[in-house]
Amino acid sequence: MNMRPPALDLPIMFIDVRVTAGAIAILDGVTLTISPGPPTVLIGPNGAGKTTLLRAAMGLVRPSSGFITWSGRESSDPRHRAIMFQRPAMLRRSAGGNVRYALAAAGLPRGKRHERAAALLTEVGLAGLDRRPARRLSGGEQQRLALARALARDPGVLFLDEPAASLDPAATKSIEDIVRAVSARGVKVVMSTHDLGQTKRLAGNIVLMHRGRLIENTSATQFFATPRTEEGRKFVAGELLV
Q1: What contacts 69, CB < 8 A, 6 or more positions away?
Q2: I need a labelling partner for 35 at 20 to 30 A (CA). Which of 12, 80, 108, 110 fits?
Q3: Out of 1-5, 39-43, 81-85, 135-139, which region has the weakest mean confidence (pLDDT)?
Q4: N- to C-terminal Cα separation, the chain
Q5: 21 Cβ contact list (under 8 Å, min separation 6)
């Protein structure tokens, strides 16, 4: 499969980023570089700040202090990035209609949308379901449809927030297979999960977060062999971080 050129928005750099809600720090002084390469996986308990970090990297959340740059720029056209939320809403359209809507939003000419939508549905394992109402798809099928909509932007960077949460093993495997295929063609995948097995299967590097702080940022091999922090050791051992 052909590799795409490096994404225009990379590296994405967080420099001492704080995001607050009232007196609560959702991100607390995060400094992080997201570079091209295999998937970056954000791990940590609920409330650690993973979703907010993804939204900030997408450009949907502005830092309360500190700053974020995309390939050295403090602002960047988000059309080269896409995000899939943990519980994506399905439009009251067919599966194909959902994808064609996303293609229209991405600026693809009308005459090319049906062919491209069919290719995207095939890519995510939904070939033949073009006319099925999106809201009648199973949970796993809806997640794959949401991935197809995100890929309609042809992003260089793809953010995924708990993409396989609450899915059964077969549906989870389908999502993971798509993530691998997308990453293999050069799209930078940044995803959150608290599934340790999924982290082991997909991660190139790992960012462990806890209470809004970045605890560890290292290769998956290094993290699972010798975590450098007490929080990391507890996470690898399956203990709760509180």
Answers
A1: 12, 13, 15
A2: 108
A3: 1-5
A4: 43
A5: none
For 218, other C-beta atoms within 10 Å of its C-beta total 17
Environment class of 53 (CB within 10 Å of its CB; exposed 0-12, middle 13-18, buried 19+) = buried
CA pair distance 97, 75, nearest whole angstrom: 32
| Neighbouring residues of 89: CB distance < 8 A, sequence distance ≥ 6 | none
d(CA 48, CA 88): 21
Provide the b/e sequence for 15-49 (b: ≥16 CB within 10 Å): eebebeeeeebbbbebebebeeebbbbbbbeeebb
Q: What is the pLDDT of residue 1?
A: 44
CA 153 centroid distance within chain: 14
Count Cα neighbours of 36 within 13 Å in the Cβ-side half-sphere.
14
SS3 assignment for 19-85: EEECCEEEEEEEEEEECCCCCEEEECCCCCCHHHHHHHHHCCCCCCEEEEEECCECCCCHHHEEEEC
SS3 category, 207: strand
Per-residue model confidence as pLDDT tens digits over 94-105: 999 999 999 999
**201 falls in which pLDDT band (50, 70, 90)?**
very high
Q: How many CA atoms lie within 13 A of 37 on its CB side?
A: 13
pLDDT in tens, 18-30: 999 999 999 999 9
Mean pLDDT, residues 137-163 = 95
C-alpha 227/C-alpha 220 separation (Å) is 10
The Cα 172–Cα 163 span in angstroms is: 8
Give the whole-angstrom CA distance, residue 235 versus residue 37.
24
User: What does the pLDDT average to over 54-67?
Assistant: 96
